[in-house]
Amino acid sequence: MAEIKFTTAEEAVKVIKSGDHIHLSSVASAPQCLIKAMCERGRNGEFKNVHIHHLHTEGPAPYSEPEFEGVFQLDSFFVGGNVRKTTQAGYADYIPVFLSETQKLYRSGAVPCNVAMIQVSTPDKHGYVSLGTSVDATLAAVECADTVIAVVNKYVPRSFGDAMIPASKIDIFVEDDQPLEEAHFTTPNETEVKIGKYCAELIEDGATLQMGIGAIPNAVLSQLGGHKNLGIHTEMFADGVLPLVRSGVINGEAKNIDKGKMVSTFLMGSQDVYNFIDDNPAVLMMDVGYTNDPFIIAKNDKVTAINSALQIDLTGQVCADSLGRKFYSGVGGQVDFIYGASLSKGGKAIIAMPSITNKGVSKICDTLLTGAGVVTTRNHIHWFVTENGAVDLYGKSLQERARLLISVAHPSAQEELDRAAFDRYGSHHHYVKGYMGK
Question: Could you tell me the domains of the chain?
Fold first, then answer.
């Protein structure tokens, strides 16, 4: 292959002009040196009204700060922790979209892409580089962008699948060997361990798993040591799966598609996870249009999808993107996987969350907060799990759902919920034994 000519980050970002739409690769792959150089140009007043798009990113996101009003406009596809405050304050904004369709925004032209700023592994002898830990919508951005700037970083793992792209697709190369941002997760507390146990009991041998990130997924995974032939088809995974892969519990043998392979679109975790996918043919990092397509997901049997939420009402409407009118995260892949799992033969779609907040407010409520977004509709919901048990709402009437949801609510909230259900549905039903009409 031709020798790659490297330039500096400062030189590379000179292609950005006023009004451009920029895609940044996400999560651990955010190209920090390019972000820094771009913000420097912004500070010097070299352009204005530059639109930035990405899923969530780890590390600083200075372009979303108030100082850049009129210079950068962040319209993210998911509100990550690093841009939550600025988004809620109106300095940044959010585009509601299913994770599966983030790639379609670019491919359909709904969102333009002038410059894709990405991070890749060092080229191999065939002239290919890997997108490493994040394929998501970045592959689509690379296909659609007028200019692709890539940071070549020896710390980016060489992952396979759709992650592998020819270096010829890249216009400008910058070299910057920076270890990737790591994410470390807290040890599950007592409540999360209980939720993990109830979820683990629902997982059958031979199941294909999807679960999000954080303490509950880790609590679930830590309970699966005695399981057999589990598979992974997910949007992301973290450290929790590694012990199960090493012990042979996760082997992908029962999958109908991508047999023996772990399929994901982005990753987030410690350096262990990044080392694990490096040069590993058992892991396919795929386009988000593949990993999160409900009809692809449904091709495997016993797909068990575990997702979290912020609030649920007594009819089974699940809010996961906002706290009332304040945007907290986004729809992400929840609906993609809830729907995909429910279409899968023997599949189980699970929403799992603590029954109350740290401040003691019930997350199971009569009605969602004003302005809250319904992410998983009452028609999509199947299993619901708290530390107090697991209930299946599918095929259940509204009154029966209320009864089941109240049964796994926090004891301190049951009486009030019972009264709300009683007001809603009339006097001839007893929702919680021992409260209404003893």
Answer: 6-175 (3.40.1080.10), 190-425 (3.40.1080.20)
